[in-house]
Design brief:
There is one protein chain. 50% of the residues lie in helices and 10% in strands. The protein has 15 helices and six strands. It folds into two domains: 4-139, Response regulator (Rossmann fold); 146-286, Arc Repressor Mutant, subunit A (Orthogonal Bundle). The protein is elongated, with a radius of gyration of 21 Å. The chain has 308 residues and is an alpha/beta fold.
Length: 308
């Protein structure tokens, strides 16, 4: 496939996504000058892990929460073609971008070779506006990113729902560290956990813990599509205490082992399960649900009308 110059797209921004506590982490293989320029262009939106070899980037993908890879066209090395192709194949959910800062005799060959191994997006920064485009691509315009894919779909399902209903789902899929308990969710929403559970119960919705548990598996299934990522590394990225803890969670929710879960479910499969079980049967209720700010007359578990 041919590489195509990136253009900003506003149509995918259906809903606002809260900023995570940590900037996007980007692994790079760049020239020394490009490293400086990429760091300057970040403006706090991402942190770059500058590496000298593709093998080092692969190690980052396995051990860090890397959201994207940036490879310089000028640094393309035919000797590393096989390793780079393996990286793209093993981590299909982590987008790899090619950075073009200069045109040399070898540039057409390098661009073609990168396209052949699966690097299909070229960001041309020879024009100053290209740096803004790069920043957008690295932080906001990743179509395979789990929170973007999930929240875009949920925004369609929950169109017209109250803002604080949407806030619950936004926090569920964007918070860092990842939400694992009702207590953590209550802290993020500034609602007492007992009050939060009471509001779900009174609305006759599944418990907030059920939304949290299945939501975590949506994230896990998406990450595990990267065949180069071990279950242990995935569990660490999602803030499980260990791979065994993740295995117990999968067993409790899905009745299968972590290995079977990986083989059976993709991120899209688990998102479909999340919607089928927890969203679509309760659409009419969710359209008026206010888990953060109690509706007038609601009595919380503490016996008082709570307005957060």
């Amino acid at each position: 496939m041919r590489l195509s110059t990136t253009r900003l797209s506003r149509r995918s921004r259906i809903v606002p996504v809260c900023q995570s506590a940590e900037p996007t982490l980007v692994a790079t293989v760049l020239t020394p000058i490009e490293r400086v320029r990429v760091d300057v262009a970040a403006k706090g939106a991402y942190n770059a892990l500058h590496r000298s070899r593709i093998d080092e980037v692969v190690n980052d993908l396995r051990s860090e929460r890397v959201s994207a890879v940036l490879v310089s066209v000028s640094r393309y090395d035919p000797v590393s073609t096989a390793r780079m192709a393996a990286m793209v194949r093993e981590f299909p959910r982590v987008p790899t971008f090619a950075l073009l800062t200069d045109v040399q005799k070898s540039t057409p060959y390098a661009v073609h070779a990168l396209g052949q191994i699966g690097v299909h997006t070229l960001v041309d920064v020879r024009n100053p506006s290209g740096w803004a485009t790069l920043r957008e691509r690295l932080t906001h315009e990743q179509p395979e990113d789990v929170q973007r894919v999930t929240l875009t779909q949920l925004a369609r399902d929950l169109a017209g729902a109250p803002p604080d209903c949407w806030r619950f789902f936004e926090v569920l899929f964007t918070a860092r560290p990842h939400i694992a308990t009702v207590r953590q969710m209550g802290r993020a929403l500034y609602v007492h956990p007992t009050t939060l559970m009471s509001r779900f119960y009174r609305a006759r919705l599944p418990s907030p813990k059920r939304y949290i548990d299945v939501g975590r598996l949506v994230r896990a299934a998406r990450l595990l599509e990267n065949v180069g990522l071990s279950i242990t590394a995935m569990a660490r990225q999602l803030d499980y205490s260990s791979s065994q803890a993740f295995g117990r969670h999968v067993k409790q929710i899905c009745g299968m082992s972590a290995v079977d879960f990986r083989q059976r479910f993709t991120g899209d499969d688990m998102l479909r399960q999340f919607r089928t079980e927890l969203i679509l049967p309760y659409l009419s209720t969710l359209q008026g649900f206010r888990p953060v700010t109690a509706a007038p007359g609601w009595i919380t578990a503490t016996g008082t009308d709570s307005r957060v």
